[in-house]
Amino acid sequence: MRAATLTDDVGSGDGLDVALDARRRIAQTEAAQYDALLGYLADTAGTPLARAGGVNEWTRYGGSGTPSVSEYAACEVGPALGLSASGGRDLIADALDLTYRLPQLFACLHEGSVDAWRIRKVARKTRRFTIAQAGDADRRLAAANVDGTPLIARVGMGRVQQILDQIRIVEDPDDAENQRTENSARRSVSIWPDDGLARISGSLSLDDGERLDQRLDQIVESLRFLGDNRPHGILRSVALGMLDEPDSLDDLYHQVAAARRGSGGGTDADADDSYADQSADEPGDGGSPERARRARRSGSRHTVLYVHFDRCWGTWSLEDVGAITRSEALEILGHSHITVKPVIDLETSISATGYVAPPRLKEQLALMNAGTCTFPHCNRPARIGDYDHIINHREGGTTDTRNGHRLCRYHHRAKTFTAWTVQSPAPGIWLWQSPAGRTYLVTGGTTTKLPGQISRTAQAKRKHDAA
Ligand SMILES: [Zn+2]
């Protein structure tokens, strides 16, 4: 149907041709991965993963028209492919959508004429489309030009989004309106640490977004006016951080106003500079506006820092951020109040007599696996996860450091309702076995797939037999 690659036509074999051919084969290999995944799901479709007991485990990962899959399929698929639960779930959903809703685009992937990330984006963006709308998107984006290249490989993703928007609006204007309402109800903003920076992702209303955009540019303009010549992107990032500190914005605007007036002394800007050098208990200005502003500024930030010392490397790190340098620590502490929390020694055994874990034990366990859920490849924060008895309390399991760990809600459900089992042969080490018999060692926030199976404890045998 299509001339799959340029190399077929040119055949000169220089480095770029070889690279292009490799890229085509990567796409084809991705398609083979999705086929194999769907084969696995089809083979296991008749086998419920959850134990009997009224747990409704069937759910639809993909869009309408795709078959339902066990809620816990992502638990088996994710770790087996080295993915988190959400990564496994997204992969299953995309593979189902490509097969059942976007077959022409999937054919392009099989031919190697489009990169996998592009059609996975389309799968995600059309997940809520009706079958007819998805079919239209499939047809339009897979349309080939004379050399056989599909449209999706010839335009940017912005243009792809326009086409998808057109399909949604033209085919069902009400649906487009409903979609906007639903999108509005799902607005959220997330901030998370990533490689020493904070990443932000989210959505705002159009009005809020426009106002925030203008506000950031306004602050950038002020910073530039005062001589800050860092790149525009960095200044917008700095500006966003300043929104959390009304007093520093106040200072900024005073400095700009003073500079615009062109006065060299006795300005607000100079006042700010001078009071920064004053001692804290300078007499005689107890009721001055400067003093009030200064007090507000010093109280504008309150930060709880979880600082850890790595005995092996002799370095300090901030929880959820990673290793920090001395200057970074100074920058953080320079404008923060500090809360010092008592150190919990991870090697100390903490125990309780009842079923409920005390806060100190929960805090200790939240730190045990580098701060994450102990399920293989899960990177959800343990601090907001559930406390779990490895051996059930009613079966004699104690409430202590050895028998406790922290699991995110999804994996707590998986451990409770499916044949997943966990053992902890030593503090800080967890051996997990999946219902299909795959074995993983989790420790220090890392997951290692182990060959073979581990011998089951009595509890694990009971769970597996009951499943
Ligand atoms: Zn988890």
TrEMBL record:
Pfam families: DUF222. Keywords: Endonuclease, Hydrolase, Nuclease. Residues 260-297 are annotated as: Disordered. One of its GO terms (molecular function) is endonuclease activity. The lineage of its organism: Bacteria, Bacillati, Actinomycetota, Actinomycetes, Propionibacteriales. Signal peptide: none annotated. Residues 269-284 have a biased composition (Acidic residues). InterPro entries: DUF222 (IPR003870), HNH_nuc (IPR003615). This is HNH endonuclease. Residues 72-222 form the DUF222 domain.
